[in-house]
Amino acid sequence: MPAAVSHLVACECCDLLHRIGVVPEGHTAKCRRCGDVLRRRPRNGAERTLALTIASLVLFIVANSFSFLAFDMRGLTTQTTLLTGVVDLWKQGKQEIAALVFLTIELAPVAQIGLLLWVLVPLRVDRVPWQLPRAFRLLRHAQTWSMLEVFMIGILVAIVKLLAMATVVPGVALWSFVILMLVLSGAVASFDPEEVWEKLEAER
Amino acid sequence: MSAREVTALEASCASCHDCGLLTRVHRGETHGLHCPRCGAAIHLRKPRSLERTWALSIAAAICYLPANLFPVMTVTSLGKTQADTIMSGVIYFVEHGDWPLAVVIFTASVFVPLMKLGILFFLLISVWRRSSWRPVERTRLYRLTEAIGRWSMVDIFVITILVALVRLGNLATIEASAGAVFFGAVVVITILAAESFDPRIIWDRSDEVGR
User: Given B9, B21, B176, which is nearest A97 (Cβ)?
Assistant: First the structure.
């Protein structure tokens, strides 16, 4: 196995070596040459992430359980939930789009929430999370494909488009979706994998 | 640190793609090596980065044409059927004087994918020509493509919501069409292309020249 060089860090964007030492909480170390982030240490990272992730879990359940948007045109009403569009696209034979939308607004966000809990809950009770490297790897993929904030813009555009011909009524699920988007991005922003590795190494 | 800037490659070191830990590798030989901290395979650069990025960028460019030429959705209202392409969606908002939304849709659906493809091909060609031109700016362009790619999904989401809401039997229904599948493909493939490009190659080329 190769030897670790723990006092240096290489920039992920330009490969330049840096000696960054300990980054104080709430600070960011950036590459001298290309400006990419080397290390970001959020204030109170693990605690804050855990709190925001638990909140996200509750909001995610609410966002999926209640009426999302209702559409009223000359007395004819359509009630939808978050997943109605996915189901309809699937039925229309557009399985590819249905799968893509399902991935980006359901599967990836729920994976983010689940994996953060998977890592942070055992750490909280001083245990080593099972399959930690795999969890980190999956978490990175989930972050690439989770697109709640983009979906928000999609909702706004769709509502404006429909307002011309009918009334659109936002439901409880829509509001919790908006808050979920903010809270989950807060959880992701305050999560620092390096802090987890350091904690585990200190205990060893 | 010394005045001379040293890269991990020059110091016979590799950083783990998964956890970022720096390890010492002998004579650049990484075959069969695994990260001592997380167990991931160690590579000096993303494996087959340029081949993969070329292949995916070309695939995305091919899908870009049907994505814009074919209708993305079909609106059936009182027996009349109307097919909408991405551009006709933009024009709809312009005609209704809804400039902010026209700009949002145009930026997300037309400009962003095109710019992303443009940047990817520009980076690929500059690296292929072993250019040492403005590596900082080129790295910044790369980070931009990585950050904006997801925003092209807006149109797919709009279609999803419209499909869900507008199904009033004979009065009005909306269905997704073939163009949307190609459009989704462009978004997914460009995200994968950006992910497989290794920006350190930009610097490898200019470090070669500087030496």
Answer: B176
Q: Does residue A193 belong to the interface with chain B, where contact is any CB pair within 8 Å?
A: yes
> C-alpha angle with apex A39: A146 to B200, nearest 5 degrees?
80
Taking only the tens place, the pLDDT of each residue in B40-80 is: 999 999 999 999 999 999 999 999 999 999 999 999 888 88
Closest Cβ opposite residue A71 in set B8, B23, B166: B166
Give B190 to chain A, closest Cα distance, Å. 12
Least confident of A19-33, A169-183, B1-15: B1-15
Q: Give CA–CA dist A153/B163, Å, rounded.
A: 16
Specify which residues A167 forms β-bridges with: A72
Residue A146 is predicted with a pLDDT of 97
- Interface subset of A 1-30, CB within 8 angstroms of B: 1-6, 8-10, 12-19
- Search chain B and give the residue with CA nearest A168: B165
ipTM of this complex: 0.92
B199 at the A interface (CB within 8 A)?
Answer: yes
Q: Which CATH class is domain B48-210?
A: mainly alpha
B7-19: b (≥16 Cβ within 10 Å) or e: bbbebebbbbbbb
Flag if A13 and B9 touch (Cβ within 8 Å): no
Residue A14: partners with Cβ closer than 8 Å, 6 or more residues away: A31, A33, A34, A36, B7, B135, B139, B199, B200, B202, B203
Distances (CA, A) of A63 to A106, A150, A186: 10, 16, 18
Q: What gap in Å lies between CA A80 and CA A162, rounded to an integer?
A: 15
